[in-house]
């Protein structure tokens, strides 16, 4: 009898762990915008001089913004993370989010530059930060977009993905990517940092067998430069450990 009870408790514990981990992974899953949504947004924004109040597309709400000079003309540009508004009567779980880039004009208006329909995770009410947005800024011509996938409850896992973008003669390209996968119960995890300009990668981990914290281990590998342009990026593909 005790043996059967023990086995049932083991099974229940395993199921709870699977559910917790799946909730965490679900926070990262996102379908992004549909082709129809992308076409609608582009049609509404392109080839216009836009006031700042007109930058958020109809049916969306602004989640975060970053200002700075992306195209090296001495005028601040603007990056937005926007979220689709929930339909009436529906909940606010897993709403698509997108990144919009606008070039600033000396007149104070903006022109639409780029849309990132698959460049960020979906919003979820269980994410600890609004929309899962971490560090979002433009610094020295580099756009930094950090997702924070910490979940408020039901998960032992946390982490995120930090993208770094810069305009050069080849286009608006990814120059750096850092992925963090942490486990709260052991305060341990793994980080992978990739320099796309050199191809070099650093993998650091203090997670041991059985989710035990161990001494930090770092492995550095040399690689070839990689060119990933804005239109070729997909969060689900690149922001996975």
Count of distinct strands = 11
What is the alpha-carbon Rg in Å? Answer: 21 Å
Helical amount among residues, as a percent range? Answer: 10-25%
Low-confidence segments, given as residue ranges, are: 1-29
Main sheet record: 7 strands, antiparallel
Q: Mean pLDDT, rounded to whole units?
A: 86
Number of domains: 1
Output the structural class: alpha+beta
- Determine the number of helices (DSSP H or I, runs of at least 4 residues): 3
Describe this structure in words.
With 241 residues, this protein is α+β, with helices and mostly antiparallel strands. The chain has one domain (2-238). The chain is 17% helix and 40% strand. The chain is built from three helices and eleven strands. The strands form two sheets. A seven-stranded antiparallel β-sheet has the order 5-6-7-8-9-10-11, covered by helices on one side. Strands 1-2-3-4 form a four-stranded antiparallel β-sheet, with helices on one face. β6 (142-148) and β7 (157-168) form a beta hairpin. The termini are far apart.
Summarize the structure.
The chain has 241 residues and is of the alpha+beta class. It has three helices and eleven strands.
Provide key terms for this protein:
globular; 3 helices; seven-stranded antiparallel sheet; alpha+beta; 11 strands; 17% helix; 241 residues; four-stranded antiparallel sheet
């Amino acid at each position: 009898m005790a043996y059967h009870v023990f086995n049932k408790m083991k099974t229940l514990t395993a199921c709870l762990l699977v559910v917790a981990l799946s909730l965490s992974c679900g926070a990262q899953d996102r379908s992004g915008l549909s082709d129809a949504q992308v076409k609608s947004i582009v049609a509404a924004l392109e080839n216009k001089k836009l006031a700042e109040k007109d930058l958020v597309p109809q049916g969306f709400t602004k989640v975060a913004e970053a200002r700075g000079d992306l195209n090296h003309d001495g005028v601040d540009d603007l990056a937005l993370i926007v979220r689709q508004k929930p339909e009436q009567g529906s909940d606010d779980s897993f709403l698509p989010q997108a990144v919009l880039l606008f070039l600033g004009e000396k007149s104070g208006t903006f022109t639409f530059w780029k849309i990132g329909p698959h460049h960020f995770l979906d919003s979820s009410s269980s994410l600890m930060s609004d929309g899962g947005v971490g560090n979002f800024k433009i610094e020295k011509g580099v756009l930094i977009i950090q997702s924070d996938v910490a979940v408020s409850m039901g998960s032992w896992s946390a982490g995120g993905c930090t993208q770094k973008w810069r305009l050069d003669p080849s286009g608006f390209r990814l120059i750096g990517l850092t992925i963090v996968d942490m486990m709260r119960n052991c305060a341990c995890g793994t980080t992978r940092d990739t320099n796309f300009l050199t191809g070099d990668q650093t993998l650091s981990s203090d997670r041991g067998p059985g989710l035990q914290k161990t001494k930090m281990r770092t492995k550095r590998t040399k690689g070839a430069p990689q060119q990933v342009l804005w239109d070729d990026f997909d969060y689900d593909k690149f922001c996975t450990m």
